[in-house]
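Hi Y.,

Following your request, here is the sequence exactly as I used it, all 260 residues.
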Amino acid sequence: MRYATREIRLASALVEAADTLVEGFEAMRYLQRVSDHCVELLNARAAGVMLIDGGRSVSMAASSRHERMALDLLEAQHGGGPCLESYGSGRPVPPVSIRVAHAAARWPDFTERALRHDIVTTFAVPLRRREHLLGALNVFVPTLPAGTDPAVGATPELQVAQALADAAALGLQNRRTYTQYRTLSGQLQEALSSRVRIEQAKGMLAERWGVRADRAFVALRQYARRRRLALDQVASTVIEGVADDAELRREIDEGADGPA
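Below is the corresponding structure, written out as tokens. Let me know if you'd prefer a different format.
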């Protein structure tokens, strides 16, 4: 029953991690929730996520439980640590005894600080979407996980952490793609609206002056060029009835069409 309960909690956490296409999305708050789920599911003291670009940490988020400690342990990895090692290899770093790693001078800055925080074991998994690496998820445990065998890397804890990390990477990638498409959609919509305004202004001037539409467009374009204004901005003033009609008409009368 206890195992089934953990399965349900894990499934719920994975569903939440996939839900990134929402208004008001905040990446750091999202990663904190992923870290919180990791702590709850693995009975860890704390957990944190390090986003990495070009081999360097670009941002960090930690579980709300012992947040300061987790951030301290993430920051201590500037000279090496589970996150950078997992990111560099693209593979999980199985549970490591902090005392053993410290004695072997593995990640000296990180292990020294971890000992101060009474962390016994740590492990990390990469945040990856197929071949694209985004960073790593690091878990900090006050005991040695049950059933840990140094010769066996894929512990149940490691598998749970990797599932959460994979879901988070998918969520972040989907959010990035969604944001890019929304931005592109907005740009296309603005370009279309701008074109409509220009055509409308051109038609209004052509009718008002009794000239061809192409000559009215020349006036709009030249007026905008001379005053270093956006063509769409000039068109809007025509539509709103606040444009200087005499100045616009003079562009046709003078026959000045300037360089294309």
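Strands lie at 46-53, 56-62, 93-97, 121-129, 132-141.

Thanks again,
Q.
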